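#onboarding

Welcome to the new folks! Below is a worked example of what a typical request in this channel looks like: someone posts a single protein sequence, and someone else replies with the predicted structure as tokens. Don't worry about understanding the tokens yet, we'll cover that in week two.

Example request:
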Amino acid sequence: MDKQFLSEAIKYKMIMLILFSSIFLTGCWDRREVFDMAIVLGTAIDKTDDGQIEVSIQVLIPQSIGGSSESGGQGGNKEIVMVKNGKGKTISDATSNLEMQLSRNIFWGHCKMYIFSENFAKENGIRKELEYLIRHPKPRERAYLYIAKGLAKDMLEVTPDLELYVGEGMRRLVEKQIVVKKTIKDVEEMLTSDTKSIILPYMYIEKSEKGEASIVITEASIFNRDKMVGVINNDAMRGVLWLRNEVKINSITVPLKEREYISVRVTSGKTSLKPKIINGNWRMDINVQIKCEVTQNGTNLNVFDPKIVATLEEELEKATRKKIEGALQAVQQDLKVDVIGFGEVFHRKYPKDWKQAESDWEYYFSNIKTKTKVKATVLRSGLTTSSSSLK
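Example response:
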């Protein structure tokens, strides 16, 4: 009898617990349906002639998704997205004006790219806009940042060849790490680092002979704090990526005979920075190790011959050293902006000396003596001995 009473009591308590818990199950009171949202795929920020901020957003048109595959290619892209513009005193003010133009609430969660125009980045700087993107809970911190030559909003109008919209194409390009890749989170960390400098991908529109437009990223923009101060070319950009240990995919072509070349693919690479302060002189020893495999032999030389391999490795070392030295010339001597991270390395090893140099780091950075050593190793030479096997 006691056992039966105890069992009934337990059941009663369980039922009461379930009923009490259901009070806190609020269901989908704050749900947001897809067709209630204006999904932003890309954002461009420009400066108008009267000093206002113009925010342009590329918005998905949900009704057109199902039929876009029939058109295919570039026509399909134009049918599933549209671009809207809003102006204001701040980025928040501009987005509020954008809201008035749309029947749906703007949703930033899918926005993968934020593009600043070169003019805006040089004159205004991007600190205030970054502060908005970081403070606002909806933009993704993993979205990528870019600088555009000309108007940033023009980039949103370009139709990519292989993707449905330009933001996806740019995301795939930077994630291959052939070019500079920086997210909102990365830039926030760079601005709070010892050197307080930024490097961002620099894009521009290139038109073919047929008049078709495409976006190209072969250069990088350099920032001193939050303001853009210059652009470095492709070779210097690759050199900076080497120095920052951010090279993932890279191909190097070197001459072994007059007008005859051998191309290799870099399978792995590592750069180490060793700071030294000797008698008040600051210097940096740069050691680079790369491992490669031959992808094309445009000569009649036997790449299985140890002597030829040694010559090839020597040429690869020269080519890599040239890129690194070109990068050092561009950022250390010309722009005097430490996007490489020398400051953090010296700070870790020489904290007392760093305190004295921090306030005048531009001067110290530009006067650091560097010594670059590159060690290249060819691991694989392919399946054939030379191109002569095709003759």
